[in-house]
Amino acid sequence: MPRADRSLGSGRRARRRSALKAGTALIALLAATVALLAMAGVPEDEESLVHMRLDPLEQSRGRVDAPVTMVEFTDYQCPYCRRFQAQTWPLLKHRYIDTGKMRFIVRDFPLEFHSSAKPAAEAAHCAGEQGRFWPMHEALLRSDMKLDEASLAGEARALGLDLGHFRACVVQAKYAGAIERNAEEASALGVRGTPTFIVGRATAGSLDGERFSGALPYEDFAAVIDRLLAAQ
Q: Does domain 46-230 have CATH number 3.40.30.10?
């Protein structure tokens, strides 16, 4: 190839490499921006505004008629769910739930790669049959809690449950259908990981709110909740 042709070909290749690098950098910048928005508790786009139905019989804390409702989709094997439970939940409970300003609902979203998540969700529901859902829920999310069969039984014993009834309920996977329905609805709402939260106003058995992903700091949740309370 003549020298001039070789120089032209090299120039074209250099321009293609430059364009490819620029495109890669732009994609990385967009991904980082979305991640930062999620970490800041800011909805990424209009798709973060969701409408979901509520079940009057589902597990909840706080006043049913509270002006703000928060739904958490959780996985008991998720370290970020445990971080939320340890760091943020006590503050939210004290300031908003115990004061009647917010209702808190928890729903199952066991991730496929967490093998212990579904049995743990079963354990929470089975404890609920004996009126101990919330103590079991909180125990399952302790940072040192193991989710093997022996540990679940040990926690049931510590909570004073009828062990025979509890074990039979877990082994039979009595709540598998309900857990699967929760997971399917979560996916339909755009939930991709845990913890994910829907925060908004509930009316006539449904919730209109914003979707937030991740174990966000208490201050981020407080800003959203205070905004909703101020607008009521």
A: yes
